[in-house]
């Protein structure tokens, strides 16, 4: 039967984000006797913990789709072109991971790309890798990792000698951003297109909702001074909207010249020099809606 055992993992807080969405986890531990207030109890001292591969990749990705939103919004906001596409890796990716002891990063940008590689590795029984979302936490730089929905601003600059792109990013300029962030790594790609429709659908905001955002921002700034982070929290609470949609709305308003944060200081409404959402300045808004359709 099941046994519930108390554990202690000193400085283990940095692992929490990786573990919260896992089906199950694996521990490396030693048992010890904890003597406290005259009572002896058996505890497990945890030295290392990692999430296991999900039993159902599609359900796992669906439950974690919120982790794709912010990196995707960052990616579509990036400019630039690539100096050349990485070469295509045509071998068996599961075999490649299984033969690699450490230093290999797999990067999956889309939900279907992440689900596909998780399924391939699971079917092959490959377990010598860690699953991370957005960034690689401190402490696991030497092992293999599957980085899902990578945040371009938070990539490790060392520890990995090879990066394989499991699907294509939303635009090719991302390749160049990652090359610069990880100068010591070599790069390959599987050449499989990424499907971003389900991610884009998370940003679906009607024009009426955008108008409500605008009116709420104007009302709030008329009576108080707010920084951009403070305004984000206020809007999420006031309108009961998820953070990724609110960040998207603020991004659109900033790009259209409706608001400015004065270089990171207080947000101000601008009374001139902006365009309507119907004009081409809202290209990112329109592009995301088209992808969602």
How would you write the strand order of the largest sheet?
Answer: 5-6-4-7-8
- The mean pLDDT is 84
**Percent of residues in β-strands:** 15-25%
Percentage of residues in helical conformation: 25-40%
Q: Give the biggest beta sheet.
A: 5 strands, parallel
What count of helical segments does DSSP give? Answer: 11
Subunit arrangement of the protein: single chain
Number of strands: 10
Order of helices and strands: EHEEHHHEHEEEHEHHHHEEH
Tell me the layout of helices and strands.
Elements: E1 7-8, H1 16-19, E2 25-36, E3 39-51, H2 57-63, H3 66-77, H4 93-99, E4 104-108, H5 111-123, E5 130-133, E6 145-148, E7 162-165, H6 173-181, E8 186-189, H7 197-201, H8 207-223, H9 228-239, H10 243-255, E9 259-260, E10 268-269, H11 283-292
Parallel strand pairs: 1-3, 4-6, 4-7, 5-6, 7-8
Antiparallel strand pairs: 2-3, 9-10
Helix pairs in contact: 2-5, 8-9, 9-10
Give an account of the 3D structure.
A hairpin with a 7-residue loop joins strand 9 (259-260) and strand 10 (268-269). The strands form 3 sheets. The chain has a 5-stranded parallel beta sheet. The protein starts with 6 loop residues before the first strand and ends with a helix. It contains 11 helices and 10 strands. The relative contact order is 0.11. By secondary structure, the protein is an alpha/beta fold.
What's a quick, concise take on this entry?
The protein is of the alpha/beta class and about 290 residues long.
Notable characteristics:
alpha/beta; five-stranded parallel β-sheet; globular
């Amino acid at each position: 039967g099941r046994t519930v055992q108390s554990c202690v993992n000193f400085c283990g807080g940095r692992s929490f984000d990786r573990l919260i969405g896992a089906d199950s986890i694996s521990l490396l531990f030693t048992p010890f006797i904890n003597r406290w207030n005259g009572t002896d109890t058996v505890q497990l001292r945890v030295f290392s913990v990692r999430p296991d591969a999900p039993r159902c990749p599609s359900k796992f990705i669906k439950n974690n789709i919120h982790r794709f939103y912010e990196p995707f919004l960052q990616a579509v906001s990036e400019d630039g072109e690539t100096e050349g596409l990485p070469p295509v890796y045509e071998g068996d990716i599961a075999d490649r991971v299984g033969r690699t002891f450490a230093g290999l990063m797999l990067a999956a940008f889309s939900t279907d790309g992440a689900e596909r590689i998780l399924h391939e590795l699971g079917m092959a029984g490959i377990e010598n890798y860690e699953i991370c979302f957005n960034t690689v936490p401190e402490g696991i730089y030497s092992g293999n990792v599957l980085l899902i929905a990578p945040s371009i601003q938070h990539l490790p600059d060392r520890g990995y000698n090879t990066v394989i792109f499991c699907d294509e990013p939303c635009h090719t300029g991302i390749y160049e951003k990652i090359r610069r962030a990880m100068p010591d790594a070599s790069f390959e790609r599987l050449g499989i297109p990424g499907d971003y429709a389900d991610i884009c659908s998370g940003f679906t905001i009607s024009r009426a909702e955008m108008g409500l955002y605008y009116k709420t921002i104007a009302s709030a700034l008329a009576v108080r001074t707010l920084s951009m982070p403070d305004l984000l929290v206020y809007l999420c609470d006031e309108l009961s909207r998820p953070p990724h949609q609110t960040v998207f709305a603020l991004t659109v308003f900033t790009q259209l010249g409706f608001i400015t944060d004065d270089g990171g200081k207080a947000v101000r409404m601008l009374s001139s020099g902006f365009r309507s959402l119907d004009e081409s300045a809202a290209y990112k808004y329109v592009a995301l809606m088209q992808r969602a359709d």
